[in-house]
Amino acid sequence: MADLQTTRLQSIRTARGANRAILFLAVFLTWCVGTMAAAGADLYRTKVTVTGQGEANRMVGFAAGLEDVLIKASGAQKLSGDRRLAAYKSKAKDFVRAFSYRDQFFGKPIRDEQGTRDRPFDLTVEFEEGKIDDILKALSLKPWLSHRPSLAVFVEMDQGAKNYIVTTDGTQSDLQRDALLAAADKRGMDIVLPGTAALAKSNITGAELRTPSFPALAPVATELDGEVVLVGRLVWDDRDLGWATQWQMDWRGQTHRWQILGLTFDETFRRGIGGAAQILSGNGDPATRSSSAGGNKLH
User: Fold this and answer.
1) Which of 52, 79, 135, 193 could be disulfide-bonded to 117 (CB atoms 3.0-4.6 Å)?
2) In angstroms, how far is CA 24 from the centroid of its own chain?
3) What's the angle, vertex CA 220, arms to CA 216 and CA 223, rounded to 5?
């Protein structure tokens, strides 16, 4: 009888343990699905800057946002400036699920005779997933919904006497740091940047980034939780009044290189991170671009 009671008690405990494990697994899977759904939904959302809240400027914002979301959702940077998008951009409002405004000067008084129509606003636009997917299909592309590797980005800025690497904590590169993070968000990528201490510890300088050794950069990237190393070098060109940039990335045993010429560093960062996304998503190598070849210094 005692043995029978012991066996029953063990069976009950085993069943309870199994139930707890099943419950934990169910909660975990629900969390994973919810996280993936949230990440997927974010690929169809973007933010652009517009002047005022009038309908005319809103339509311009919708058109710019549509191009951004098509690039973001697919990973295909090559869609930037693609003439095939013109027909879709002309009716961009038909693909919008929701939108909202945020006054960039919120809390600041209106200057002189400036009205709200003249103030800059962040216009956040969320597009219909199905309609965006249909456009991508018509363009022979598809959404990039699989894992997106985190980029460890090493960028050298060369402006004559001023030469530095963009870091997480360097005051000299605060504008470039913010621009890189904004570019990554616009292209749907996660990035990490080195700190000054990490660079010093690994003896990484601008000279090392000009002819980068990816095996030497890999340990630093790993410490930052970066999965793929992306190296960029921006050199200011007085004649072109823009940055001449060389990007390099190792992926699956192959070194990819591309150039961007004559653009602002904001646009250069968008194209650099977008180019990396294009390679990682299987959409081919990015082409060398310049301000005269569809570059947009303001967008």
Assistant:
1) 52
2) 33
3) 145
**Do the Cβ atoms of 289 and 282 come closer than 8 Å?**
no
Distance CA 172, CA 113 (A): 36
Strands 45-51 and 120-127: antiparallel
pLDDT the model gives residue 212: 92
Per DSSP (E only), the strands in 11-95 are 45-51
At 299, is the pLDDT very low, low, confident or very high (cuts 50, 70, 90)?
A: very low
Residue 113 DSSP SS3: coil
Q: Where are the beta strands (DSSP E) in 135-227?
A: 151-159, 162-165, 191-192
Contact 72, 46 (CB under 8 A): yes
Residue 287's pLDDT band, with cuts at 50, 70 and 90, is confident
**Alpha carbons 220 and 226: distance in angstroms, whole number:** 8
Is residue 294 a contact partner of residue 267, using CB atoms and an 8 Å limit? no
SS3 content of the chain, % helix, strand, coil (to 5): 45, 25, 30
Lowest mean pLDDT among 5-9, 31-35, 53-57, 211-215: 31-35
Residue 173: pLDDT over 80: yes
In whole angstroms, give the CA distance from residue 285 to residue 100.
35
